[in-house]
Amino acid sequence: MARVLSYVPRAAIFLAGVAAGVLTSTRREGTGVDSGAVQDLKRSLAELEARVASQEASQAGRFSQIETRLEEHAAKLSEIPSTTQIVAAMEQLLSKTMASLDERLSTQAHSIEVLKTTVSQTDSLLERVLESLDSLQSYSETSDQPVDSLLERPAV
After folding, report:
1. Is 67 contained in some domain?
2. Alpha helices in the chain (DSSP H)
3. 101 and 72 co-located in one domain
4. How far is Cα 119 from Cα 26, in angstroms, rounded to an integer?
5. What is the rounded distance in angstroms from the CA atom of residue 92 to the CA atom of residue 83?
6. Would residue 154 count as lying in a domain?
7. Are residues 90 and 124 in the same domain?
8. Burial 67-102 (b: 16+ CB within 10 A, else e)
9. Which of 12, 36, 42, 141 is 20 to 30 A away from residue 124, measured at CA?
């Protein structure tokens, strides 16, 4: 057994050397594979950064367009009259229209009154004319005067 124990440190050193060799070789192989993968990752990362930058630029352009449109809409909205202004204008227009209508109705009522007065006066005048004709007719019937020759003469 003493003999076996003398081989143990040598075997341990041998195994440690083999393990170190295996680890070193796997690192060398891994470094070659890793450097290609790292290059692919770096390239992918650069492409991703470029896409993100282009998206940011595109979004910045869109935001500036939206802001411009918002400013235009705000300017248009400030030019539009408010509801109270529209209501006030409508009330003013309505009051003018009603005043005009009242004035026309008053004028027509006055015209109707004048027409009634005129018709009444005409009726009165016609009645007096008819009474005068009746009185003339009864006067001519009651009078025994000879008929005037000028009245009976035919028209030339």
Report:
1. yes
2. 2-79, 83-142, 149-152
3. no
4. 132
5. 14
6. no
7. yes
8. eeeeeeeeeeeeeeeeeeeeeeeeeeeeeeeeeeee
9. 141
**One domain, residues 67 and 122:** no
pLDDT digits (tens, 9 = 90+) for 25-75: 766 555 555 678 888 888 988 898 899 899 999 999 999 999 999 999 999
How many C-beta atoms surround the C-beta of residue 49 within 10 A? 10
Give the tens place of pLDDT for each residue, 81-121: 889 999 999 999 999 999 999 999 999 999 999 999 999 99
Residue 19's SS3 state is: helix
CB-based contacts of 70, cutoff 8 Å, min separation 6: none
- What is the span of the domain harbouring residue 33? 14-80
| Residue found under tokens 């802001």 | 67
Question: Are residues 73 and 87 both part of a single domain?
Answer: no
- Residue pointed to by tokens 């869109």: 62
Give the least confident one: 17-21, 41-45, 96-100, 150-154: 150-154
